Amino acid sequence: MIDIGNADSDQAAQITKLSNTQNKIEGKDFASLDPTQERLRMELSLGGIQYLYKTGAKIENPEKEISFDEAIISQACLSSDLSIVALVKRNIGALTENIEKPPYKILFNGSTNSFSLYNGVQVYRAVDSCIKQFENTVTQRKRLVFIHGNRFLLHLILNRLKENEGFTDNYLSSDEIKNKTESLFVEIWEQVYKSMEEHFSDSYPASIFKNVGRLKELI
To answer: Which helix (H) or strand (E) holds 51?
Structure first.
């Protein structure tokens, strides 16, 4: 244990980082030192929701719990910045490389909304559920949209649903979000596949959905 006295949190984080040479420390581990994460935890707790943002915490009751790993993906895909949407597919670790700078600070800051955070995670879960439901019904490139374009699909669906009443000022029920997501999923999946085949018929999907320029063309 190291007594840091009145030192600020930046010094505490630096000591933690530099002294852990024997343990695997990932960038996301330092998110637990971010006051924004604790603020979101407290706000969510007032709605009866547990936000598990510390390393090692595991979801036991999905109806009442969300995790940081889910939240950072949904926050990235909720962004209107396609470079972040491409990054979450290409290198998710880069989102938490430095919690004092973008892209992390774009996703988690003083204006991050606990309602949209929770609702975004519910959409993320619903999209994953839809992918599992349909992925074995198709083959070849149409199926590869699920594997490589899952975050892009989530981005498109989130940006439709975030305009719905209550998304930014209420904790919507998981059933309501699931129903709304399912009503959009096939339509958006078909559109993405059609656009991919029209613009990038000779490209492997893995390279398409990691490239911000190509995402812009798909849009």
So the answer is: strand 50-52
Residue 17 pLDDT: 63
Indicate whether 91 belongs to any domain: yes
Per-residue tokens: 47: 């709605």
Residue 83 lies in a domain: yes
- What backbone torsions phi and psi does residue 150 show, to the nearest 5 degrees? -60, -40
Cα maximum dimension of the chain: 62
Residues of the domain holding 192 = 25-218
Q: How far is CA 203 from CA 87, 141, 190, 191, in A?
A: 19, 10, 18, 17
Q: Determine the average pLDDT of the residues in 49-60.
A: 89
59 lies in a domain?
Answer: yes
Handedness of CA 160, 165, 166, 169 (dihedral sign): positive
Are the beta carbons of 84 and 108 closer than 8 angstroms? no
Please determine, for residue 23, whether its predicted confidence score (pLDDT) is greater than 60: no
Q: Is the residue at 36 inside a domain?
A: yes
Amino acid (one-letter) located at 190 = E
CB burial readout 193-209, b (16+ within 10 A) else e: beebeeebeeeebeebb
Tokens of residue 38, six digits:
């604790």
User: Which one, of 211, 16, 43, lies nearest residue 99 by Cα?
Assistant: 16
User: How many domains in the chain?
Assistant: 1
Of 171, 154, 16, 6, the residue nearest 82 (C-alpha): 154
Q: Give the C-alpha separation, 7 to 50, whole Å.
A: 30
Sign of the CA dihedral running 110, 116, 121, 127: negative
